[in-house]
Amino acid sequence: MLYIIISVLLIFLELAYFLVADRFNIIDRPNLRSSHKSIVLRGGGIIFLFAVWLYAAFFGLTYPWFILGLTLIGLISFIDDIRSLPDSVRLVVQFMAMFLMFHQFGILNLQDWWMVIVALVVCVGITNAYNFMDGINGITGGYSIAVLIPLVYLDGIHDFISPSFLYVVGLSLLVFCFFNFRKKARCFAGDVGSISIAFILLFALGLLILDTQDFSYIVFLAVYGTDVVLTICHRILLHENLGQAHRKHAYQLMANELKIPHTVVSSLYMAVQLLISAGLIFIPINHYVYLGLVIVVLSTAYLLFMGKYYHLHEEYLKSKALQS
């Protein structure tokens, strides 16, 4: 009954946000990076922040420093959705939020200061990478569910986090997907959504890694990680400004140049990640060997895909240049 009440509240809060976004014109206009052609409400992913607040209200302030960090990073991302902020401002707040998460982990100490700094940089990078991948209907919500499912399963074995926390986050993802994982999305996640859910999943994944002392569980983010890292490397080779909008991710080529429906592409990313995560959990193989094999296979698949279809994107760019 408690989860039914929370579900109803999440639906109500999301619909209430739609009214606010419509009233104050919080919208996403198509641009060079966009894979959509019509104006859509932005910031529907604020529901992930609402979900954690509801978790704290119903189940207690179990993770106060994490929730404070999530609130900071969520609110600055929401402001950025409304009016663009300087990268320096966003990064300062993101590092502050990640510092608070690390404090919740209990891993801040002067003896390992350099490891903490490296981990802070990596984790802030992961949250922004998650944001880079938020470009088509359903991908953020669907992929996040694919990350959450193995975490829920492993929590039943290792008890590394409150199961209620994972359930409430899962409910928020289902509500968001109802409005976003469709041919014509009612809303987009916005930076507040993609950054917030990345922060939430990193928290749960971090607790799992710390509890098991097994870093190979980072494979739960392997599909996104491969796409982001290799796309950045590709853009560096092309001497592009990494700060400029683009449509060079593999999922973008699938949706734009190959005209594969957004929901099909999102489902593909979701399914591949679920299979990879299941392999780590159930296949009797050394976890780090498995992680290495996954990286090799995904990287090879990415390179083969780009080698075959990237020319379509170049043709698109040439056509846009001729039109202008």
Structure overview:
- The structure is a single chain.
- It contains twelve helices and two strands.
- The protein is mainly α.
- The protein has a two-stranded antiparallel sheet with strand order 1-2.
- Helix 2 packs antiparallel against helix 7 (163-180).
- The radius of gyration is 19 Å and the shape is globular.
- The protein starts with a helix and ends with a helix.
- The model has no long low-confidence stretch (mean pLDDT 94).
What descriptors fit this protein?
324 residues; 73% helix; 12 helices
Strand order of the largest sheet: 1-2
| Number of extended strands | 2
Stretches where pLDDT is under 50 for at least 5 consecutive residues are none
Q: What is the string of SSEs from the N terminus onward? A: HEEHHHHHHHHHHH
Largest sheet: 2 strands, antiparallel
Topology, pairings included?
Layout: H1 2-23, E1 27-28, E2 40-41, H2 46-59, H3 64-82, H4 87-105, H5 113-132, H6 139-158, H7 163-180, H8 190-212, H9 222-237, H10 250-257, H11 262-282, H12 287-323
Antiparallel strand pairs: 1-2
Question: How would you concisely characterize the structure shown here?
Answer:
This protein has 324 residues and is mainly α. The protein is built from 12 helices and 2 strands; from the N terminus they run αββααααααααααα.
